[in-house]
Amino acid sequence: MLTVPGAEIHYEVRGSGPPLLLINGGDGDAAMFGPLAGLLAESHTVITYDLRGNSRSRLTGSPEAQWIEEHGHDAHLLLRAVAAEEPACVFGTSYGGMIGMDVVARHPGQVRALVAHEPFVIDLLPDANRWHALFQEVYELYEREGVDSALRTFSEAIGVDGPPEPTYSLPAPVREMLARIRVNLETCLAYELRTFVRFRPDLDALRSARFTLVIGGAGPATLLHRTTQALADQIGTGIAEFPGGHVGFLTHPADFAAALRRAFEA
Question: Strand 239-242 vs strand 7-9: parallel, antiparallel, or unpaired?
């Protein structure tokens, strides 16, 4: 556990070699990176963690609206505690990619290279206000009817399926992870979604960094493909395709690990 302002951060370290930090999206936790981290630990010291207020990273104060910059500070403190001797490669998916962008902008010396997978940078879209209004509606639906109705509306709007139910037919570790994610969905809907999507990355910092944008190449285009393209257009870079869809790191870990290694070596 790492003590940071307002929270206790649960983190895990695997392997040896150059440091590599993996940052999850909104409702996931370190366990979602388990298969990928195990493969990458063959050549790196792999650091995974639960975002503040999610799973095993408990808040030490009252819950309130959270911001990407706050989470970026958590990642900075974690790197300082675990990988202070050399800059780390950083991979972030969805919100995690945005957290990585904040670290690159404010602590560039800590990041050797950043790979951002389908970052949810809604505020860069020309129709951002429409999406902000929809996410407010999702929050109000959550307040009235609970997680299931809100998640269904949210998933249909962005084109990404929500997590499956933690049924007893699943292996115990998977069932336990999904049960934690189920609780995390409430944190995401109540305290993260509406504020996280207000994040606007430092474009100049990204242009000067070793920075790669990627999308999941499988399945139909989603809102996250749009946001990734909007960011690519603004910084003048291309987009690489990685195996699988939005959670390709979990569904295709071996191929994803190989693609991630190539991206960091490029």
Answer: unpaired
The residue written with tokens 């298969």 in the block is: 35
The Cα–Cα gap between 175 and 3 comes to: 28
Banded model confidence at residue 210, pLDDT cuts 50, 70, 90? very high
Global confidence as pTM: 0.95
Closest CA to 32 of 227, 216, 225, 163: 163
Closest CA to 176 of 163, 161, 192: 163
Q: Quick one: which of 92, 65, 101 has its CA closest to 188?
A: 65
CA distance 88 to 54: 23
Inter-CA distances, 235 with 95, 205, 228, 240, Å: 18, 10, 11, 15
Side-by-side strand order, sheet with 11-14? 11-14, 45-49, 19-23, 88-93, 111-117, 211-216, 239-242
Beta strand 19-23 pairing with 45-49: parallel
